[in-house]
Amino acid sequence: MNKIINNLIKINLFIIFCFNIALSAESNFFIVVKVDNEIITNVDIVEEAKYLTALNNNLKKINKNSLIKIARDSLIREKIKKNELKKYFPSLSIKNDALKKIYLKNFYQKLNLNSLDEFRVYLNNQNINISTVEEKIKTEILWNQFIYNTYGNLLNINVEELKKKVDDNKYNNNKNTKYLLSEIVFSLNNKKEFEKKNREIREKIKTNGFKTAANIYSISDTGKFGGRIGLIDEKQLSKKIIEKIKLTNIGETTETINIANGYLILKLEDIIIEEFNKDLKNELDNLIRFETDRQLNQFSIIHYNKIKLNSNITNE
Fold first, then answer.
1. Which helix (H) or strand (E) holds 306?
2. Residue 11 counted as domain residue
3. Per-residue pLDDT tens over the stretch 189-247
4. Which end of the chain is more exposed for a tag (fewer CB within 10 A), N or C?
């Protein structure tokens, strides 16, 4: 009980801190950066910092300048995506309410919350309106739809290979291995920068923790949740990644892995062994879905990096 009370006190103190900054920012309103014709103000950055901290409480532990940079970079990514989406979805609206509910549920479950009501209370305690989250989810839905529409015909799903994975597992003592994972995905303009960047990220993991490092460096959408991926079936992972995970102890990070769109560092949070699901069709469907999502995520990163290069980002 004392631990819960202490956490609530810390959260309330941080809210007061952000509120005081916001009041100061509003009295000295100014533009920080422009992304093409879109502006980002100091007030926007304060609100984004508050939002990101709600998703990853570890950000309370870093200094103010680092938090401001994370919030600024997050808003730049959002503006770049929105500018691209406006070309294809001028109104930026979504009619599929069921899809919005699914995304919202996935969102609060990543925060280990069990219901929308719990999520509302959590946000209210941190002085965040749920409409802020819904707006960001809307951008995520439209972006994913856009990536699928653009690159869906380039997907290469080897169904026969996935079937073999399912069949092989039938004879593996009816046991299924799952890994609870978090990730940091990063890319470089020049491969010569790898050693320096990798060392920098590793140092940040040591000093501030994996979640904070993911917020700062990861280009994956999981970054805003401190890199949290969740529970992944071993069959869904490539042989190269499984080999690296099996060399890693629970609570530690893998070696940096070279992947198609950059580099990957995984943190092994836990290993769970459970009975094998006898529904082979469902197993295959899950593998196909995971592989589809994996490839689309790669296309998403590639496309974002391309449009970022063509965006006019200027500091004011």
1. helix 280-309
2. yes
3. 777 889 999 999 999 999 999 999 999 999 998 998 999 999 999 888 999 999 999 99
4. N
Among 132, 152, 172, residue at a domain's last position: 152
End-to-end CA distance of the chain, in Å?
Answer: 47
How many domains does the chain fold into? 2
Contact 82, 32 (CB under 8 A): no
Going across the sheet that includes 38-41, the strands are 38-41, 31-35, 313-315
Question: Phi and psi for 20 in degrees, rounded to 5?
Answer: -65, -40
Cα separation, 8 vs 6, whole angstroms: 5
Look at residue 192 in the predicted model and tell me its pLDDT.
81
The radius of gyration of the chain from alpha carbons, rounded to an integer in Å, stands at 21
> Does residue 282 have a pLDDT over 80?
yes
Its domain, for residue 174, covers 159-309
Percent of the chain with pLDDT over 70: 89
Contacts of 147 (CB under 8 A, 6+ apart): 296, 299, 300, 303
What sign for the dihedral angle of Cα 54, 55, 57, 63? negative
Percent of the chain with pLDDT over 90: 63
pLDDT for residue 146: 96
Going by their DSSP bridges, the two strands 38-41 and 175-186 should be labelled as unpaired
Domain boundary among 152, 179, 213: 152
CA angle 9, 14, 18 (to 5 degrees): 150
Task: Let me know whether 201 and 138 are in one domain.
Answer: no
Q: What is d(CA 68, CA 259) in angstroms, rounded to the nearest whole number?
A: 30
Q: Residues 15, 4: contact at Cβ < 8 Å? A: no
Q: How far, in Å, CA of 15 to CA of 11, rounded?
A: 6
Which residue is it, tokens 């009501």?
A: 117
CA distance 217 to 21: 25
